[in-house]
Amino acid sequence: MVSLSPRQLDVLHHAANGLTIPETAHTMHLAVSTIHYHQQVILHTLRARNMANAVLLACRAGVLDGRPRRHGDHAGFAAHVYRGEEPCDLCWAGERAYRAERHEARKRNAA
């Protein structure tokens, strides 16, 4: 079984969705060098020649299931929890916004 960290899986998912290293870095709020490092670890772990090959090998290994991953909202937060992962910063922020909105809705309904 392939063992990639949650952050490496996020980098792999972004690559599978066609994002470049700078776009991935911007989306994940990380340095370009950090994304490059994670991609090198992914390539080594999967024994892939490039990221396109890594995506293919990850799909074959069942690491990528083809379903879009949600981030930055309540559903993304819940998906992390369901998979037994620590939610990413973006999903934590989305969950806080969701909870605040629900709290305000309950206050409006109680009044």
Provide a concise account of the structure shown.
By secondary structure, the protein is an all-alpha fold. It has helices at residues 6-16, 21-28, 32-46, 51-61, 74-82, 89-110.
Which descriptors apply to this entry?
6 helices; mainly alpha; 111 residues
Describe what you observe in this structure.
The protein has helices at residues 6-16, 21-28, 32-46, 51-61, 74-82, 89-110. The radius of gyration is 17 Å and the shape is elongated. With 111 residues, it is an all-alpha fold. Helices cover 68% and strands 0% of the residues. It contains six helices and no strands. The mean pLDDT is 87. It folds into two domains: 1-65, Winged helix-like DNA-binding domain superfamily/Winged helix DNA-binding domain (Arc Repressor Mutant, subunit A, Orthogonal Bundle); 70-111.
CATH fold description of the largest domain: Arc Repressor Mutant, subunit A
Intertermini distance: 54 Å
Order of helices and strands: HHHHHH
Kindly give the count of domains: 2
Average pLDDT level: 87
Structural class: mainly alpha
What share of residues is helical?
55-70%
State the CATH architecture of the largest domain: Orthogonal Bundle
| Rg calculated over all Cα atoms | 17 Å
Main CATH class of the largest domain? Mainly Alpha
Q: Shape, please?
A: elongated
The percentage of residues in β strands lies in: under 5%
Instruction: Give the biggest sheet.
Output: none
Work out the helix count.
6
Q: Could you state the CATH homologous superfamily of the largest domain?
A: Winged helix-like DNA-binding domain superfamily/Winged helix DNA-binding domain
Number of strands: 0
Which residue ranges are poorly predicted, with pLDDT under 50 across at least 5 consecutive positions? none
